[in-house]
Specification:
The chain has 74 residues and is an all-alpha fold. It contains 4 helices and no strands. It has one domain. The protein has helices at 17-23, 28-33, 38-54, 56-59.
Length: 74
């Protein structure tokens, strides 16, 4: 299966359609509770992930899953 190439050039924070389709395949935990719109959910997850990856210092305070600068390897 071809994996998407990430984010399209010229489009800010828009996940690749292949990545969205792949992520829209719900995990077991997600299937248990269901999803009204797996593709919209996948797109939101991928957008937030890219934002945290591209700007970890700015987004660290917003995420409980993000380490502090002191916790990160040098």
């Amino acid at each position: 299966m071809r994996r998407g190439s990430g984010y399209r050039h010229g489009m800010s924070q828009r996940p690749d359609e292949d990545d969205v389709r792949t992520r829209a395949e719900l995990l077991a935990e997600e299937r248990a509770v269901g999803s009204d719109d797996p593709e919209a959910q996948a797109e939101a997850i991928l957008e937030e992930s890219a934002e945290r990856t591209n700007d970890p210092e700015e987004t660290a305070a917003e995420s409980v899953q993000t380490s502090t600068p002191a916790e990160r390897p040098s």
